[in-house]
Structure formats: C-alpha cells, structure tokens
Amino acid sequence: MRFVLLDASVMVALFDDAEQRHSHYAGKIGRHSPGYQLATTWPCVAEASYLLSPRNHLAMLHWLHKGGAIVLNFEAADLGELLPWMQRYSEKHKSLMDLADASLVWLASQLDTQAILTEDRRDFLRYKLPDGRGFEVLA
Questions:
Q1: Run of H or E including 138
Q2: What's the rounded Cα separation, in Å, for the pair 20 and 9?
Q3: If we measure between CA atoms, which residue out of 133, 138, 130 comes closest to residue 7?
Q4: Angle at which helices 8-15 and 22-30 pack, to 10 degrees?
Q5: Which strand (E) or helix (H) includes residue 106?
Q6: pLDDT in tens, 52-74
Q7: Is residue 52 within 8 Å of 60, Cβ to Cβ?
Q8: C-alpha R_g of the chain
C-alpha cells in the first residue's frame, strides 16, 4: 500500500472552512483513492490542534479516531535522527525545521514514501530523505 503523508497545514485547511484551500482538500481527501493511506505524526496533530478552533479541533480528532489517517509515533531515542535534520534545515534568521516537519521526514523514511500533502511547499521541496530522495508534494 502506498502511504501519503499529511502535514498540519493540510489538516488545518481541511477542518477550517474559512481557510482558502478548504474546499480543495475536502474534495481531494474526501475522494482519495483506496490505493493509498494517509499517515501523520503526533507533532503534526498537536500543531494542527493548536491552530484550529475548539469545534474544528474536535472534528479533526474524531476524523482521526474513525481512521481518516493513521497517526504514528516516534520514541525519544528517535530524536537522534531528527535533531541533525532540524539543525541542517534551520537557517539562522530565516527558516526553522520544526519538530512536526522533522517528524514527517522521519515518517517518510519509516514508511518508504516521498508523497506528502502540505501547504509548506517551499520547505518540503528543500528537505531530503536520508537516502537523498526529495519529497513529492501533491497539490
């Protein structure tokens, strides 16, 4: 089965109907092919939860509970992999690879996928997987 990663930015757009790309993602994810499974991490869920209103935050959590996407976790020991990426991709006074983004790079490596749904195209087009492959940002 093919996995497609789900970034916090898309979860926010999906569950906040005031977001500019809400309809786009509601249609795209609502009709997603049974040929792939959406996957995300707890840092992404936490980031989206923080940005959503209480009503939309609860709707997202219910959606996840019903299997809208699988949520995978990493252990503290895995931070040894994430920290070098965060240091490499964080530019002083410019851009920061946050924990949520680093967790998706980790997850891509774990699930052997390059496909990601994200609004953060600029960041995910510059991030590389440990084997040097780039991400395939799906629109």
A1: strand 136-138
A2: 12
A3: 138
A4: 100
A5: helix 99-111
A6: 999 999 999 999 999 999 999 98
A7: yes
A8: 14
- Closest alpha carbon to 100 in 125, 77, 82: 82
In Å, the largest CA–CA distance within the chain is 42
Q: Could you give the C-alpha distances from 127 to 7, 23, 55, 57, 121, in angstroms and in order?
A: 14, 27, 33, 28, 10
Whether 57 and 49 have beta carbons less than 8 Å apart is answered as yes
Whole-prediction pTM: 0.91
* Cβ–Cβ < 8 Å for 115, 136: yes
Backbone dihedral angles phi then psi of residue 133, each to the nearest 5 degrees: -70, 150
pLDDT value at position 43? Answer: 97
Alpha-carbon torsion angle 125, 128, 33, 37, nearest 10: -140
- Say which DSSP state 91 is in: B
Dihedral (CA of 138, 44, 47, 129) sign: negative
